[in-house]
Write a structure and sequence with these properties.
single chain; alpha/beta; Rossmann fold; 12 strands; globular; binds adenosine-5'-triphosphate
């Protein structure tokens, strides 16, 4: 069985024409189905650029992105729009909810885009999702009447309405207090476990990243480290064969022994 969801090959991004800045340097990366992955790295290292290109919100200068073996860098704009709608969910630091609309309406909106009119089934699904994110008693509240953490949970439900295979989250907890941060991260984790949704999360928070299955550290537009975590406390065990290991065992000291996929 092919477990690979995404294959990113030699991705380059150069901004500018006269004065050119190369912000992604031949980035290559494979991401498996159901993986829960964080991208960390200093400010300006290219995390958001990489995420936006994976989400087809920005174009690569060169390189390829295969999503279930189909190269999205070759798609035309209408094909890309439909690819995004069918396969992707987005969660941003600033959730961009429509303030005058209720929580329920905000969740349903992406399905309007997909189906033109919301079906009864989608309406029911939106209510279920709001229950899953713990907002059952807030479905008819306007977005502006909700706390920051609640608004972010609406945004998470909205990202799930079209049953995406992959959710791209850019600093989803960046705007939240520490309690809401933990709750939102736990929620994303639970969604990953329950629906097998693949997650790629850009975060500055190493403590949260350590709770992912896999952490990628970017430095100067390159992947500096790529490791699976033991998910025990905050200790990160470094994977010795970055693109090629699923299982992980503690070695003497802090490093781990990477075992190939099929062991
Ligand atoms: N539209 C743009 N035009 C020119 N340069 C850009 C543009 N967008 C980003 N950059 C530059 O690309 C580099 C990478 O930016 P990016 O936002 O991907 O980094 P990041 O790691 O996500 O940073 P942060 O953690 O601060 O969000 C930065 O030097 C940034 O200034």
């Amino acid at each position: 069985m092919d477990d690979k969801l995404l294959e990113i090959k030699d991705l380059v991004k150069i901004y500018g024409t006269k004065i050119q800045t190369k912000v992604l340097h031949e980035v290559s990366l494979d991401i498996n189905k159901s993986e829960f992955m964080s991208i960390i790295g200093p400010s300006g290292s290219g995390k958001t650029t990489l995420l936006n290109i994976i989400g087809a919100l920005d174009n690569a200068t060169s390189g390829n992105i295969y999503f279930q073996n189909k190269d999205i860098t070759k798609m035309k704009s209408d094909e890309l729009a439909s690819f995004r709608n069918l396969n992707l969910g987005f969660i941003f630091q600033f959730h961009h909810l429509l303030p005058e609309f209720t929580a329920l309406e905000n969740v349903i909106i992406p399905s309007w885009i997909k189906h033109k009119t919301p079906t009864k089934r989608k309406q029911q699904r939106a209510i279920e999702l709001l229950e899953i994110v713990g907002l059952k008693d807030r479905i008819n509240n306007k977005a502006t009447d909700l706390s920051g953490g609640q608004q972010q949970r609406v945004a998470i439900a909205r990202a799930l309405i079209n049953d995406p295979t992959l959710i791209l989250a850019d600093e989803p907890t960046g705007n939240l207090d520490s309690e809401s941060t933990e709750q939102v991260y736990e929620l994303l984790r639970n969604i990953n476990k329950e629906f097998k949704t693949t997650f790629i999360i850009v975060t500055h928070d190493r403590h949260l990243a350590a709770k992912s299955d896999r952490v990628i550290e970017m430095v100067d537009g390159k992947i500096n480290q790529d490791y699976l975590t033991a998910s025990k406390g905050e200790e990160l065990w470094h994977c010795l064969a970055p693109h090629n290991c699923l299982y992980y065992q503690q070695n003497e000291g802090k490093n781990g022994i990477a075992k190939p996929h099929n062991i």
